[in-house]
Amino acid sequence: MKKGVIRPGHVQLRVLDMNEALNHYRDLLGLIEVETDSQGRVYLKGWTEVDKFSVVLREADAPGMDFMGFKVMSNAVLDQLQQALVEYGCQVEEIPAGELNGCGRRVRFEAPTGHLFELYAEKENTGKWGVSQVNPEAWPQDLKGMKAKRFDHCLLYGPNIEGTCALFQEVLGFDLAEQVVDPDGKKAGAFITASMKAHDVAFIECPDKGKFHHASFFLETWEEVLRAADLISMTNTSLDIGPTRHGLTHGKTIYFFDPSGNRTEVFCGGDYHYPDHEPVTWTTEQLGKAIFYHDRQLNERFLTALT
User: Fold this and answer.
1) 214 is catalytic
2) 255 in catalytic set
3) Residue 183 preceded by cis peptide, ω within 30
4) Count of CB atoms within 10 A of residue 155's CB?
């Protein structure tokens, strides 16, 4: 049952050197640099995104993810979900409007996996970058790098993904679109969505709390993914795996690392999900094919390089 969550809204990432990070996220990935706030955080967005920002970079001593935010339909929905989280037993913190530039009040909670999530209803709408709302052109002519269109999802590692899925499904109205199960039928991986996408956030079972695997950004075509691979080589960027196809979600993908060690994905295609669809299930014995459909072999770095 849908409960008013619209989409992933933003992710705040920790980076070791801001200038190097901007070379990655702005110049290589092609996000639009929006502004820098009084704390030194840098705000960016994909060119098709209508809200002011979707990625926030914070310089820190260790890489990783601070939090991921989801936009909800209205402040009334935000109030309802805040109360539902409290009644479910979550510790909830309210972040005042303006703590992130252009963003309304946020309701923050910790999932059983140890990750911080937040909900918000309001963010300044600045429109698609470089494209008019009336009689728009197909795309801006001065985009950089991979020309990433939007922030799409995160993959996160932590314990008790069963409990985390229950929280997202029962309280926030997400659907389980795809899963990986072990021989005992327990979830080893869960791909959940608040929309028609294959996933808006995904979790892999891991004993360590709060681990970040990757942030993913949408491209339109396989040709654009191949072009991204060329740019990774041209800039001597650290490549993880790809270009290839996933079995899970069937997206066409490539993974690479920012200079701080945070993993980035760009992808195209992938499955869709309606609320009446049954979850797609993969078994752990087919995990190699589930992750890397073509060579059907697990890349140990892909499973263990986390921030």
Assistant:
1) yes
2) yes
3) no
4) 20
